[in-house]
Design brief:
By secondary structure, the chain is an all-alpha fold. The protein has ten helices and no strands. The protein is flat.
């Protein structure tokens, strides 16, 4: 195919991707209060369990709530339009691949969104309740000679933290896809993954400490699943990549 036709094809795929994002953004902005309710549900459950049914979140600037709903819509648009982006990217590069290459890449394309959803679900349904319980436990009730400490969470800060953690867990769970793919193309191998296990474990705890809030629950909650995924990556890499001649002789 001539270069100009490749550029026209790329332009068409980009237009479809951008169009899908703006449609998803408009839909998500319309339902932004529902998305906000879903993202705030873990904190609402923790506060309700502690007898704080009348608790609230606040905003301290006139424009803060408006921009918060825009951020929620932007986050939702990225999340829901991603399959369209990925499909358009695949339709652009697939004609240039051999059939064997398509069969090699297809499992990674299927596994990637599944792992992202798995990481996001782990953060939402397991890490958030534990972490919010931990943080709220530092509230101090009123007493003689003391000033009570009570949570008055800003809605923008809370939603930024939640969206940051969902994205961080989802992206971190892409590690098996990256490791197995690197082994398939020969940049890494199973032996190097096994030899580098101790360094990988240290690196995962460092990554977890950087991309999660400064509490032990979130950091261990991300590092432990990453270690398990690392071991699963070794098993899959050993299963899907050809063995070196030394192992075949042994």
């Amino acid at each position: 195919m001539p270069l100009i036709e490749h550029l026209m094809e790329l332009r068409q795929r980009l237009l479809w991707s951008v169009g899908a994002f703006f449609i998803a953004f408009a839909v998500c902005y319309y339902f932004s209060t529902n998305i906000y309710g879903f993202l705030a549900q873990p904190l609402a459950n923790v506060l309700f369990e502690q007898g704080g049914g009348d608790r609230r979140m606040i905003f301290t600037a006139l424009y803060e709530a408006f921009f918060t709903y825009l951020k929620v819509a932007f986050f939702g648009a990225i999340f829901f339009s991603f399959p369209i982006w990925a499909t358009q990217l695949w339709l652009f590069i697939a004609p240039g691949l051999y059939r064997s290459e398509k069969r090699t890449i297809m499992p990674f394309l299927v596994a990637s969104p599944f792992l992202f959803l798995l990481g996001a679900a782990l953060a939402y349904y397991f890490i958030f309740p534990l972490a919010w319980h931990f943080f709220i436990s530092f509230e101090t009730p009123a007493g003689a000679g003391t000033v009570p400490i009570q949570l008055e969470a800003k809605v923008s800060e809370y939603l930024s933290l939640v969206m940051h953690m969902i994205l961080a867990f989802g992206i971190a769970f892409q590690m098996p896809v990256g490791l197995v793919l690197l082994c398939k193309v020969g940049i890494l191998n199973v032996q190097s993954l096994r030899k580098g296990r101790r360094y990988a474990i240290v690196g995962m705890f460092v990554v977890a400490a950087v991309i999660t809030p400064p509490d032990v629950i979130s950091q261990v909650g991300l590092a432990v699943p990453l270690i398990l995924l690392y071991e699963i990556s070794i098993l899959f890499a050993a299963w899907t990549t050809p063995k070196p001649p030394e192992e075949e002789k042994a």
